[in-house]
Design a protein that fits this description.
By secondary structure, this protein is an alpha+beta fold. A two-stranded antiparallel sheet has the order 1-2. It has a two-stranded antiparallel ribbon with strand order 3-4. The termini are far apart.
Length: about 70
Amino acid sequence: MPKKDSEHSETSYSNLVAQTEQGGIDYFGNEILVGDVIIIDKNNGEVFLENSLEDYLIEVLCFQFTTAE
């Protein structure tokens, strides 16, 4: 008869307690967690994480980053 894995049963929900509360999903589909720094584009209401600012500027607002010559 297979041995019951009681240790697994006791700890299977431990990770749920340690997870941070979700605050939504940003423009790029990234999970926003409570406490994350977000940016809101007031022109269209889009929300995105601060670390996605450059991506948003390039992909949505068509900004171009280049080096001065």
